[in-house]
Amino acid sequence: MKTFLFALAGMVSCASVAAAGPLALNLWPGNPPGETKTLPPEADQAKDSDRLVGGRRIIKLGNVSTPQIAVYPPSKDKDTGAAVVICPGGGHNILAYDLEGTEVAEWLNTIGVTGIVLKYRVPTRTPKDRRWFAAVQDAQRAMSLVRSKAAELGIDPKRIGILGFSAGGETAALTALFTERHYEAVDDIDRISSRPDFAVLVYPAYLAKTGTGEQGLMPHVQVTEGSPPMFLAHAYDDRISPLNSALLFVELKKANVPAELHIYSHGGHGYGLRVTDNPVTTWHHRCGEWLRRQGYLSREGQ
Questions:
Q1: Buried b (16+ CB within 10 A) or exposed e, 73-111
Q2: Mind listing the pLDDT tens digit for each residue in 198-220?
Q3: Which of 274, 294, 293 is nearest to 284 (CA)?
Q4: CA distance 100 to 85
Q5: What single DSSP character describes residue 32?
Q6: What is the pLDDT of residues 135-154, one digit of tens each?
Q7: Which of 59, 135, 221, 301 could in theory staple to 120 by disulfide, Cβ–Cβ 3.0 to 4.6 A?
Q8: pTM recorded for the entire structure
Q9: How far apart are CA 172 and CA 189, in angstroms?
């Protein structure tokens, strides 16, 4: 699958989204910050020999140099006005675009939430200790862009969350935690807040120190009392340690930030929403309950 919905980009009106597919918008008015290198064409890099998830292949989108968002609105009868920016994982090398992106938007639609899939830049442009940098720039810009278009998209600018998996979980977490933008403002959109109102992190990666003998979060992962509420889900046997979720939860608790943590005994890594025999793949039911209890799914006037 070498071509994608992104050819719809930019000028499609919201009224035509249901008929034409998701609304796609470029994040930046020109080149993204710091971009100087030309990559090969964007393409699905999945191979026939790749592991199947839930009996199906995964779109592994690579060589992303034009970051975009794709907006999936729910049906009018279910629409709560809430929205979530979705950050697929992929180790900052590729994006698991369907498994941890479009399929998640489809689930969010069933609970009345606008799903907004973020196509951030991959592969990473920066060294190992800052491989999140371009992804976070794109996520911060996406949050501001979505908020700037809240009225046009029919969403509540005070109920816009972020959700991420694995490397996308790192991206989502840092976007939620950082208090400053990681690029110079390029236009008036960047005058609008880039902080999400809540965050959902599913098997987030690279937040905790590993292989050093130390235990704790990475120095740049800083929780404050102003951090947004979070829902976290992980499997005990994940090769990406559940300490990434557990240690973040501890810091959220210390700061008195509302949070909910689910660690399941089995499940491994990279399952997204696809059903397996492991209870971990019911995480989205618990997440939906949490979103409702927190009031994010309340329709206006109710």
A1: bbeeeebbbbbbbbbbbbbbebbbbbbbbbbbbebbbeb
A2: 999 999 999 999 776 778 999 99
A3: 274
A4: 12
A5: P
A6: 999 999 999 999 999 999 99
A7: 135
A8: 0.92
A9: 19
